[in-house]
Amino acid sequence: MKKLICALGAAVLLITGCSQTKEPYVRHTFAFDTYITISIYEHDGEYTTGEICDGAASMLAELDDTLSVKKEQSVISKINSGEQSQIDASIYYMLKNCVDLCELTDGAFDITLGNISEMWGFGEEALQKPDFDKLKDYAGKQNYKNIEFDDGSLSMKLKSGDFSLDLGAAAKGYALDMLNGYLVNAGVTSASVDLGGSIMTIGSYNGENWTVSVTSDETNSTAGTLSVGETYIATSNGFNRFVEYDGVKYHHIIDPDTAFPAQSDVKSVTVITANGLIADALSTAFYVMGSEKTEAFIKEYPIADYIIFTTDGQTVISSGIADSYESAQTADE
Ligand code: AMP
Ligand code: MG
Predict the structure, then answer these.
(1) Using a 6 Å CB cutoff, which residues line ligand 1?
(2) How far apart are CA 164 and CA 82, in angstroms?
(3) Hey, whose CA ends up nearest to atom 3 of ligand 1?
(4) Spatial contact of 247 and 23, defined as CB atoms under 8 Å apart
(5) Other beta carbons within 10 Å of 142
(6) Which residues contact 181 (CB under 8 A, 6 or more apart)?
(7) CA distance 165 to 282
């Protein structure tokens, strides 16, 4: 029995298994500029699945309102205005974790590229070609070193107006972390969430592993399947989001060293690890780093597994998941 739960984005949950099929309670919602599917298979406790999903949808909408760079009232917009901003402890420590990840990846993941993304105009309707010379002035700044945190008052401030925060590479992962805490507290013991291609699983599917289909290109067809337990999966690629100027496509993942779209050998990268924020941040960082640097990084910091589809058609898989991944080509043979 094979059932497609949701086919949006770069990783897709396929529920497979020999045992009896289980029908989940499914809720669709929209936040973070993307479609979200919450599927609850098992839960106990006093709340109905409907009530649990009402709470989950409100929580996601609230997190989106807090973290969006495009919403004037968001916490991120307040920080970007240059004010010394006192913020909620969970957001404060999430931002500190982000800065740690910026440092760990030597700035390949950088939450201070807001100005650069804005100049490129990703997601804007009235596009204006950026001034390439001006963009170069923003390159290589590592401005995550220029965020001032005050642990005493849980407040923070950007040290200059030359940069701004953009959590586009991490917010979905963090939202999945928060959602996990909420769902588990509400008594959920088996569930999957697809947040625009970023995936979280809770527990098991009927005592078996979850099967996740991984895509490698714009056709969104299955390149292979991964068998996973309770985990988080994030994917970064350049083909789903881009702008076009003078007939040239520029994708949305910026190499902070150049302020231009990253030109690594990665076509698409999927990261699997036990934390949503880390999975999300690393998928973006690995796209920027390319396959060789990613391999060296994971050798030094074995904190995640990954599948990289390279621009020359190779598939590079970290050793931790080599046995859990089945290529669609192999399966067809
Ligand atoms: P993702 O799809 O998770 O890889 O995130 C990409 C989004 O994060 C982009 O649309 C930008 O908003 C932002 N971004 C682009 N490049 C970077 C980068 N090198 N580090 C952190 N955020 C980035
Ligand atoms: Mg990311």
Answers:
(1) 109-111, 113, 117, 122, 166, 168-169, 236, 241, 252-254, 256, 280, 283-284, 288
(2) 9
(3) 169
(4) no
(5) 15
(6) none
(7) 17
Which of residues 216 and 112 earns the better pLDDT score?
112
The minimum-distance atom of ligand 1 relative to the CA of 109 is 20
Phi/psi of residue 329, each to 5°?
-65, -45
Q: What is the pLDDT of residues 98-110, one digit of tens each?
A: 999 999 999 999 9
25 forms bridges with which residues in the sheet? 40
- Which one of the ligands is nearest to 241 CA? 1
Q: Is the pTM of this model over 0.90?
A: yes
List, for residues 184-196, the tens digit of each pLDDT value: 999 999 999 999 9
